[in-house]
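FAQ: What does a ligand-bound record look like?

Like this one, built around FE2/S2 (inorganic) cluster:
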Amino acid sequence: MTMNVSMTVNGKAVAAEVEPRTLLVQYLREHLGLTGTHVGCDTSQCGACVVHVDGASVKACTMLAAQAEGATVVTIEGLANGDALHPMQEAFRDNHGLQCGFCTPGMVMSAVDIATRHPNPSEQTVREQLEGNICRCTGYHNIVKAVQAGAKAMGG
Amino acid sequence: MTDTGIGARVLRKEDRRFLTGGGRYVDDINRPNQTHAVLVRSPHAHATINGINAKAAESAPGVIAVFAGADTAADGLGGLPCGWLINSKDGSPMAEPAHPVLAQGKVRHVGDPVAVVIAETRGQARDAAELVEVDYTELPSVVDTATAANPDQPQVHDEAANNTCYDWEFGDKAGADAGLANAHHVTKLDLVNQRLVPNAIEPRAAIGDYDSGEDRYTLYTTTQNPHVIRLLMCTAVLNLPETKVRVVAPDVGGGFGSKIYHYAEEALVTWASRKVGRPVKWTADRTEAFLSDAQGRDHVTHVELGLDKDGKFTALKISTVANLGAYLSTFGSAIPTYFYAPILAGVYTTPAIYCEVLGVFTHSVAVDAYRGAGRPEACYLLERVVDAAARETGLDPAEIRRRNFIPESAQPYQTPIALVYDGGNYQKNMEDCLAAADAAGFEARKAESAARGMLRGFGLCCYIEFCGAAPSAVAGALGARAGLYEAATVRVNPSGSISVMTGTHGHGQSHETTFAQLVSEQLGVDIGAVEIVHGDTDKIAFGMGTYGSRSLPVGGTAIVKSLDKVIDKGKKIAGHILEASADDIEFKDGQFAVSGTDKALAFGEVAGAAYVPHNYPLEELEPGLEETTYFDPPNFTFPAGCYICEVEIDKDTGVTRIDRFTAVDDFGVLVNPNIVEGQVHGGLVQGIGQALYEGCQYDAESGQLITGSYMDYCMPKASDVPSFAISTNETKSPTNPLGVRGCGEAGAIGAPPAVINAVVDALKDHGVTHIDMPATPEKVWRAIHGGATAMAAE
Ligand code: FES
Ligand code: FES
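The answer part, i.e. the structure of the complex:
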């Protein structure tokens, strides 16, 4: 059995026939080829899969594609403006906030959301707000700096 | 000249693709017409397989094939090999039981692979895997490290009596015994270095792709060393010549050791892709990673340290039981032996050292190298026992270390336990760290904490480790079945752009930037002109890969030596064109110039001329500008440093918070300080994770993995750890022309004892002298409220 889902992803209208059990993250990766959104766990804890759904950060492994019917989804691929990186992407690069890069898309998407809610976040706020994102490489030190710098650059 | 050479804090070349979703990890790759594999794994720790009924699975929707152990055996597949032979005290070789890619009649840990289901989609393969009926007879199991070798325990392998793989020793037993017997004081400690799960955030994945036209396989896999995988898989498992197999390791999302080893799934998808005539893709989910990625540490140790009346160490004696898991992983035998005991001198002049290690099999996932690999275990016991000795003799922890440091003037220092250290001022590292950590202000901060009802503790660790594996002659003499050199090719293209093919592999270490900086420094070009090629056995001559902080000291040196050869060849070409002797050409600031004249050619001009040999004296000068080096290092490198941790503990909840963490490391020359700092941060948090949060646990009765997901295995989060105050000292290593030492593992080695020494210090007024890792709130609370003895017994 399959079902039809349609939504807007990174500004483009998309539609597909999918199995009802298809997760949003599977839909993005396997149907749309948007492999920037990663899967790092099966218990909704690592945050490698974070995307924006209707403006809020969501773990794309916790949501069925069908639940995103009609939604506006932004993934890491949709963040930069052509060649110009989003200020948060720029901040991660400037502060060496990534190593292997696997947690990075989820971290950046979460960070943009954090910055929207906390325009000038303290170190403590950033650390608490990153509760849902695990990085095994960086020790978080530079990620925290990057989120603070990125929030500032976004106009905080 | 360029500003992207050695020492420059240039931003990473690899970042743009990772930040825009353009990274290409194995699971991002899809091959035309591919199928999906899901493994059927043992739900039991120990059981006999009476039969496998795959009928229902085979007829489930989308299923293409189901293979079990009988199928791999029928095709003559070999087992997964172990790369290091360890001999026991009596000279006998270690027990080396078979490690089949699919279970042969018996399963030996929860997660042991039994069958593989291949279907059109991953969902269909997963559904069908549920339908494979395996008839098991459950058997009793053993998972406990300390008691695994007791004669009454269930046996993991028939060929390893008392579950003993080896009973090994190293060092001077008589000397250590005498040193302890004559000591003024002997400090004794029993420690557990708990099992950890490496947990790279990218789960392992593999795609096998057999091309019948070429009669050739391609394996895409999440590995730290593609050539090693090709070598092991071809020679030990699939019996194929290397020419028939290409191994590709594209972007890899962290490894920390867990992606060094040759795993069953790699061989299975490669083999199965020919069986089913289509590409076969497998991606682990996190649960599978917990059940199948090699795990780390897992030592139970008794240590004795002798001291004279002045607090000088007279002898060190160690007895360790090391849990190897159910099977020998690729380097599993070597980690608790040759990667552990030889560094037990630490930074001290202890004259006699002896270490014995009992390697045991248990019904658990295989144990192998995890960030630091053997050296964290050594550093932990040594820095803990030194602190305990300080407490018992009434000396300050810094003072007892001062009395025992190897002085800088004694370098290069021959330790009593094989290694020769290659320079460093260990006392300076500590004094600098004490100053940076404001050790003088600790008592005031402690009083301030106490006023709020909180306990504060100060913990010190002076670590040393060895990197840059390895001088092959030494490794070979100690049982390694491979050499540990590294290869690099520098190819100057006709337009002057430069390709560097390295046998190392970056999976977070920033090789694309650091290695480009080496080229920039030596050839005077911008890093933008340099492409670093890694992770593909078809593109790169050979390599041993990335682990043990070896990429820069060994792989970087191979690049530098190839660059030297390129410059030499360039001089010949320039000499020919400028009608001068090659000996009169000097290369400076990106130009080949005739000494003492203004005649010169830019590097790019020589690159072009190398490929247009219109009037070359071909007898003496070949066209082309490409050089390869295999570099085998003369010694290891020895990074060292000092870490200071200050914790605050809530008496009522037992929660430990790290208030300050200060690090001083001597990594020799830094090529890119940003990247080095990032490596230190990451290592420190893995070390703090071990000290306070992480621990892999199996149920003693059933052998079930209790900590099998991120719900149960506590990964450090951003809010669990502090920011760090880190700095470096620089003692150039004489072992390689770059003077580098390696920085990837230091944090994970030095942090655990620093944290636990701080915790014990905070609890000392409550009579606590020891606490085992991880120092969870429950353990700390019990230690405060139940006293020290209750804790030690746990
Ligand atoms: S994949 Fe880990 S939280 Fe979604
Ligand atoms: S950069 Fe590797 S997991 Fe975060």
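Follow-up question: can I read anything off the structure? Yes, for example: The helical segments of chain A are 24-31, 87-94, 104-117, 123-129, 141-153.
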